[in-house]
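Slide 14.
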Amino acid sequence: MKNFVALIILLSVGFAEAKPQTAKVKNSKRKPAQEQAVAPDTLVLIGQIAGRYFADADSHSYVLGYIEMKDRVIQKMAKIQESEIENYIQQNPSKQILKLKRAGSVQYDVIYPGLINLHNHTKQNNLPVWEDAQGQFANRFEWREWPNYKHAVSGNMNPWVTYARAIECATYRWSELSALVLGTTYLQGPSSCVENFGVQRVEDASAYVSAKAAVQAPTDLVIPQDMEFVWAELGPVIRSGKTYEYALAEAIKKYCPTIPVTEQNINSSEMLKTLKDQKQLAELCVKEGLPNRFIRYVYWVHPTIAGRKNYFNSTSKKPAALIAHLAEGRRDDEYNKKEYEILKLLGLDLPFVNLVHGVGIPSETYPELASKNIGLIWSPFSNLILYSQTLDIAAAYKAGVNLALGSDWVPTGTKSVLEEVKIARNYILKDVDKENLVSTFTGGTGKVEKIDEELYKMMTENPAKMINHYEIKTGPVTKTNPSGYAEAAVGRLAEGAMGSVIVVSHQNANPYTNLVVHATEKDINLVVIDGKPSYGNRSYLDALGYQGRYEPLPVDSADHSTVALKHEIAQPAEPDPENRLQFLAALIRSFSGTEFKPQDKCGFSEEKVLVTSNSVEANADMRSFREATGMDLDKAHDLTRVLAINIMTQSRNKLDPKEGKPEYALKYFPALYSCNDSNHMRRITNFIKLEGSDDFEANRKYRSQVIERDKLGRIPQQLADKYK
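Slide 15: predicted structure.
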């Protein structure tokens, strides 16, 4: 304890030399609830809307119209003439009406459905792009085991993220903010502590007006070590025409003859309770001649497979969808080509199963995917930066496979689908492998706006269909659901769709090109989730009466990096949770006198603001953290400061030269806004260029040399040998 006290004293004086900057970061204080204006029940937005959302309009043009949102749902949507607007406003005094025409602009802003991102790893998005990824890997299991990757990612994420539960909460909240400022309203990814904060989570049943069960999203369904038993022992039986359940039940009866398992009861809750008892299982099964990893498969893996089957077979609640990694790597990797076959052996080739990446799935299988309503989630940047290959996207599109975009994660991906779509577009237009991508996506016309339309759908209606939340169905008005809809769609603008929309600057005559090509974080002028504004231009939020209820952005500052880099700060002296919290309090307060100068390389034409929530009150961990440190994790400024201080000073690479590697310690803290992060912008803008050489070309050119340099190839070969 002596050392710990000394450490706190050191922290309290160690940062005294950090001089306050002249420009102050503005922090808005939320008014007491009784002083806050009560917003009308109905929010109305008047602006331009893509013609595709009106039956009698040109899909590639705009219509001036309005949407009325109440009880989380779009209740009315119609065209309106400019000359009719003032009369409409006068006739609806009880509604909160916003004209989406900014000062000095001749055009109304454009209303789009909120974007949907079906693939993200939300814990590590406060890391920068991994520079060592140069397209050299064969599959995901190769780079996951590569020491350089472990140093670059886990070496920078640990141990600080374990210091307090609230720290982990901060990482998830950062991902939600990163998504929000780029127009995402539905984000897939493991998360917690984000209720009533940021965007909606794809996996949360409460994110929708719907009676369906929550979307399931395990990271992996197929782990090669665990599936060796299925491939070698069950595969021959299943290929003869039997079910997975029959094959596994027969194997259990063979090796554990006293267990009364059958094809019919193997997935039941009663039988699963027996099978999950590892100790009892080991006692009941024979000791000699057991297949490799048999016990582990039965007690650990099968219950997961059974859970997915039971989800889809449920009669009590209609299932929505399942999202899982599969066949991530190169098309020509021998093991990677087997993962879809393994999925079929398990009997999980089912409607509304959506496969993340799927690059190794043989293209001749795509018609089967389409006929079974199995979707593919395309993350081109992640695929290309890791493997120098991505989906045979032309073949998948021609086969009619439902396609959505996913940003993956920042270390080997982008911050949002709005960034990902620009890389996807360049990949199609450049068509490096001469796969007739442009002709395929334009139906032979060569009209690029058709490509933009298809990519637009991959961020809106396609993912909505894939997660089974595209239908609109009226229902009774109830106390818990007064909307009048039993099912409200996402990914579209229509009466009965969720009131989650984004408002984007008008920069192009084509609504798809406007979003896909031109829109960046500078152009996201308003984000509305469930009919309530969450983020946007200050003028719009002021017009809606939100003065005093928002936090000005950006929070980005180069000082987050430079101040932290000047100091060496030891880890907590003792692992006790209370001591760790005391350490965090001392660490964070050591920066409390430092004012970080805001950084704005973006050139925002208008200040962006984040509507403040009060979600910390409902979480005991974050409340305790706020009391100990003074940091409110509802606020973007405090979130940024907490993450920057910890990741820059408390990583294994920074503190532990034995387990970590100092050369992999972060040199800077990534900005919330991409336009404030020159390293991030350089990586994504230089990756695939329409003209001239680019990073993708260089990666492919030197791939064999990099593989030899990094001594790669062993793991893919071992996997291929096991799955012949």
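Speaker note: The chain is about 35% helix and 10% strand.
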